Amino acid sequence: LLLAQSEQKFRTLAENVPGAIFLCKNDEVYTMLYLNDRVKEITGYAADEFLSGRINFTQLYHPEDRQRIFNAVDKALETKKKYLIEYRIHHQSGEWRWVEEIGTGVYDGNTLDLIEGFISDITLQKHAEQELQKVAEENYRLFNNAVTLNVMTGFDGYFKRLNPTWHNLLGWTEEELK
Questions:
Q1: DSSP state string for the chain
Q2: With CB atoms counted within 10 Å of each terminal CB, which end of the chain scores lower, N or C?
Q3: What pLDDT sits at residue 148?
Q4: What was the pLDDT predicted at 7?
Q5: Burial bucket for residue 173 (CB in 10 Å: 0-12, 13-18, 19+)
Q6: How far is CA 77 from each of CA 47, 58, 81, 101, 117, rounded to the nearest angstrom?
Q7: For a pLDDT cut of 70, what percent of the chain falls above it?
Q8: Please, how many CA atoms are within 13 Å of residue 92, restricted to the half-sphere of its CB?
């Protein structure tokens, strides 16, 4: 009875967590032994497709990320540490999605038995970061390349940042003007 209750609690947690929980072999395709159903939201493929071997995560890796993923996992397993990596996968719909994976080895003494971990979809976060980077670069260009005197000041009344036009016009360095 206690074992059944414990199993039910685990299943409830595993099926409601916002991401894919996995347990896999440390082989060339990370053969899945357990994978919750949330993997379908991330990959477009059902858990049973991975569990049966019809598809594996390595098939979904973006070619530019593939070797980095293998290197990070191998290094972590060799040193018996956790790994945390971000990479792109090819969703069944055809789009590329960003995921974050955290995992660790499961050891019997010094022998690596399996790998367990969690994968979450971070595509929206990555797109927001890319947009923010574009805005930051544009603001930097506008601030520094303007022919007008652009300045940022603090509430203390002192200059915090000045564009190069100040130096070009007045001849004083940014440090002197601050």
A1: -HHHHHHHHHHHHHHHSSSEEEEE-SSTT--EEEE-TTHHHHHSS-HHHHHTTS--HHHHB-TTTHHHHHHHHHHHHHTT--EEEEEEEE-TTS-EEEEEEEEEEEEETTEEEEEEEEEEE-HHHHHHHHHHHHHHHHHHHHHHH-SS--EEE-TTS-EEEE-HHHHHHH---HHHH-
A2: N
A3: 81
A4: 72
A5: exposed
A6: 25, 17, 6, 14, 13
A7: 94
A8: 12
What whole-number distance in Å separates Cα of residue 79 and Cα of residue 88?
Answer: 25
What does pLDDT average to over the chain? 90
What tokens appear for 15 in the block? 């099926």
Alpha-carbon gap, residue 71 to 60, rounded angstroms: 17
Q: Which of 127, 70, 66, 68 is nearest to 95 (CA)?
A: 127
Residue burial 97-129, b: 16+ Cβ < 10 Å; e: rest: bbbbbebebeeeeeeeebbbbbbbbbbeebeee
Alpha carbon distance 133, 128 (integer Å):
9
Nearest to 103 by CA among 123, 129, 127, 77: 77
DSSP 8-39: HHHHHHHHHSSSEEEEE-SSTT--EEEE-TTH
Q: For residue 50, with 0-12 CB atoms within 10 Å meaning exposed, 13-18 middle and 19 or more buried, which class applies?
A: buried
